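ESCALATION

Customer reports they have been waiting on this structure for their group meeting. Please prioritize. Original submission:
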Amino acid sequence: MSRTRTALALGTAVAGAITLASVTASAAPLPAAGSTTVTPAGHAFKAVLSGKATLKAGSVTVTCSVSVATGSVPAAPGNSNPAGPVSSPISAPTYSSCTASMPGVTPTVTTSGAWAVSMQNGSPITATMGVPVGGLVVKTTGLATCTVTAAPTAAATVNGTWSNGSPSSLTFVNATVPVKVTGGFGCPTSATTSTFNAVYKVSDDTDPAQNITVGP
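Update from on-call: job pushed to the front of the queue and completed.
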């Protein structure tokens, strides 16, 4: 189901910086991922933006103060993986109460499709958010008429980190996602990625007395 929010955003959230290790034919294979368990099993959660999120496409920077997504920890035994991450679907995040560095622009942000989040225990605990093809589209009116499509040709991943706490937090630092920008004067049509920074507080919606926790 689509979710539309009016926001000032010419770029969109998400895909973290990915470092590719350089290997040779004689190099040892990368170690297997360790075990991961997310608890409480089967509990619903809500991720709410803490502070502000910044998004940048080309020379345009957007700052949003409201963003929310929801989901559920998989029921047991799906909440535990002995050799890798634990994944669960989430709602398409919404963004609103935004301002932009480009004046005189009013955008509409539409999110849709099957989004997901994946947690991998470790040091640090890593989190990957999956953005479906075309999962976020920004259309602007005013001084610049632009369309920004995230993950325009293939699903994209956003890399972040997770910290257990009360509530726990999900952090994205200089995360990037492929975008396609079309439009006329004032549109950052040369931009092929959008950069995203945000911290989300993730609380247990089923039992607020508990915390969503990632461990081995």
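Sent to customer with the following note: Residues 1-30 have pLDDT under 50 and may be disordered.
Escalation resolved.
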